[in-house]
Design a protein that fits this description.
The chain has 178 residues and is α/β, with parallel strands linked by helices. It is 25% helix and 28% strand.
């Protein structure tokens, strides 16, 4: 089923999604990869604030290539999500509603997705140049010293993803791919 979603996400939006749904996201999403997740996790351990409010928001596991002249952002394809698995349950428990990446997730992430009524989306790997055309604004908001791994706030329009894991724990990779 094709769905249009606005981000930040509402609880109802997430609860209505099912593994296998095609979704087009419009609104604000945030980027964070390995190094940024490590810093956010350390901030939480130290009782510090995160650089953005994760509640009802989506994190895209992506580190873009540098933008070319006249472009908002460079290639913007997903990275392997499992590298963020050790940090993800904590963010979901703080209200993160969605993640975009590629690849399988571990059982602790699946449990946290179900416990918190969240969703895991996949973006098509290898299609970074095409995905970048759906990003209309990109602003570094934290950890600028990390270069392409800095946290960015992205404004997206009809950004295409597929629901891999829904809030009920249905998993497209397990149920279809095996």
């Amino acid at each position: 089923m094709d769905r249009q979603l606005k981000s930040p996400l509402s609880e109802k939006d997430v609860m209505d999604l099912r593994a296998g749904d095609y979704v087009y996201i419009t609104g604000i999403i945030y980027t964070a990869r390995d190094a940024a997740h490590k810093r956010m996790f350390e901030a939480l351990e130290n009782g510090e604030e995160l650089p953005f409010d994760v509640k009802n928001n989506i994190i895209y596991y992506m580190g873009p290539s540098p933008e070319r002249e006249g472009k908002v952002i460079g290639s913007a394809g997903p990275t392997t999500s499992s590298r963020m698995d050790k940090y993800t349950p904590s963010l979901l428990d703080l209200g993160l509603k969605g993640m975009i990446g590629k690849g399988k997730r571990n059982d602790s992430v699946k449990d946290a997705v179900v416990r918190n009524g969240a969703v895991y989306f996949a973006a098509v790997g290898g299609a970074g140049a095409l995905l970048s055309k759906k990003i209309i604004k990109s602003t570094v908001i934290a950890y600028d010293d990390l270069g392409t791994e800095a946290i960015r706030e992205l404004e997206v329009k009809e950004f295409p993803v597929i629901v891999v894991m829904d809030s009920l724990g249905n998993n497209l990779y397990e149920n279809v791919v095996g």
